[in-house]
Design a protein that fits this description.
Layout: E1 2-6, H1 17-31, E2 35-40, E3 50-53, H2 66-75, H3 80-93, E4 97-100, H4 109-117, E5 121-124, E6 138-139, E7 142-143, H5 149-162, E8 168-171, H6 174-182, E9 191-193, E10 214-218, H7 227-235, E11 242-246, H8 252-261, E12 265-267, H9 273-281, E13 285-288, H10 298-305, E14 310-313, E15 324-327, H11 332-344, H12 346-358, H13 365-380
Helix pairs in contact: 3-4, 7-11
């Protein structure tokens, strides 16, 4: 197939989420001998993938004044230059199917251009950017449903533009799919959940020692990821437990200070693939304490494919994580109580680990790509 991928950014070193996903998917489809072109808002290159640049908006400065911020958001809703350039490129390249991803900085013009080019179209909703100006569907750490004026405007423009030509909506969790169906982004028959997969890693059955837990946090170091709540819970954990933290973000200094002041806590910063594998291999339990409506998370798939159980918050699609224990997000007391219950019965973690290893094939990246490839083929075939 000739496949056109559309997303805002190329994957950068250490990037996560949708950027990392799109780069991995583009490479995997190219390896399967599809002709892949990535249309993106940045200059750059991916091995085996043709890249064409689109005229994206510049990123909004974090310290921008409210009037400038408002003007930026209004302009970012629809960019005529993106509509013209992407539409022209699609007519020139004549792909069999377009697979769109993140439209931020490219605007709803991505969708109007695809519709104008009359190409079969699948869209993956990695988050809630179609429905919410803040992407998170939360305000002040609490789920808000995207009811503010800015969200309603963005939802009206982006959803209306997308519905001009949408043959398939792909979501990484049932939670994301149902939220988009609730806002009539697609008909139920044209919406599909395809869960994340991960590359193979070191597999082993987890057998925690009674009363001892080796905990880990891996990901973006930010408040909405629940790191402050985890650190507060860690301050009250027994001396026999350890917490290993890895990743990068605005709370990196806070993680480093916590590690410097507590011998039970370690901080590794950003990890390459080899160190990431070793990090996960050294854990009994991965903690994913997000406090926003987390759509899904790649790190949960990385844990599952290794037989590593998870403790997740009750936010968004996280409770769908295979073999996960769930606690009330944002509540360090509930987090600590859940950990204490697991430490008291380590055989529960071993049972969950064994179940993950038995179902290993379903968590593999190759299995995920199989499902996406088949969905794109069906979309191209109409």
């Amino acid at each position: 197939m000739k496949i056109a991928l559309v997303s805002n950014f190329l994957p950068a070193p250490g990037s996560g989420g949708a950027e990392r996903y799109v780069g991995m998917l583009a490479g995997a489809l190219a390896d399967r001998e599809h002709a892949v072109t990535l249309y993106t808002g940045e200059e750059g290159a991916l091995a085996g993938v043709r890249c064409r640049r689109l005229p994206a908006m510049p990123r909004l400065r974090a310290d921008a004044a409210p009037p400038r911020r408002l003007a930026w958001h209004l302009r970012e809703q629809w960019l005529p230059a993106v509509h013209r350039q992407l539409g022209r490129a699609l007519r020139e390249d004549r792909p069999d199917v377009v697979h769109s991803h993140e439209p931020q900085l490219l605007s709803a013009a991505v969708f109007t251009a695809i519709a104008a080019a009359a190409v079969p179209h699948a869209h993956t909703a990695h988050d809630f950017n179609l429905l919410c100006a803040r992407v998170t569907m939360t305000r002040g750490g609490e789920a808000c449903g995207g009811g503010c004026a800015g969200c309603r405007l963005q939802r009206a423009l982006r959803v209306r533009a997308l519905r001009r030509r949408l043959d398939l909506l792909i979501a990484p969790s049932d939670f994301v799919r149902e939220r988009h169906l609730a806002h009539a982004v697609a008909a139920p028959a044209r919406a599909l959940t395809i869960r994340h997969g991960a590359e193979p890693g070191r597999q082993r059955l987890r057998r925690p020692e009674p009363g001892r837990l080796r905990l880990g946090f891996l990901g973006t170091l930010a408040p909405h990821k629940g790191l402050p709540t985890l650190l507060r819970a860690a301050a009250a954990m027994p001396a026999s437990w350890t917490l290993a933290i890895a990743g990068s973000g605005e709370l990196g200094e806070a993680a480093a200070r916590a590690a410097a002041g507590d011998p039970r806590i370690s901080f590794s910063g950003e990890l390459d693939a080899e160190r990431r594998d070793a990090f996960l291999d050294g854990l009994d339990l991965l903690v994913v304490p997000s406090e926003w409506e987390e759509p899904a998370t790649l790190v949960a798939a990385e844990a599952a494919v290794r037989g590593l159980p998870t403790l997740v918050s009750d936010r968004g699609g996280l409770p769908e994580t295979p073999q996960a224990e769930v606690f009330a997000g944002g509540d360090e007391g509930a987090l600590l109580a859940a950990l204490e219950a697991l430490a008291a019965r380590p055989e529960r973690l071993s049972e969950r680990s064994a179940a993950l290893l038995d179902a290993n094939a379903s968590f593999l990246w190759s299995t995920h790509v199989d499902a996406v490839e088949a969905a794109l083929a069906r979309t191209a075939a109409g």
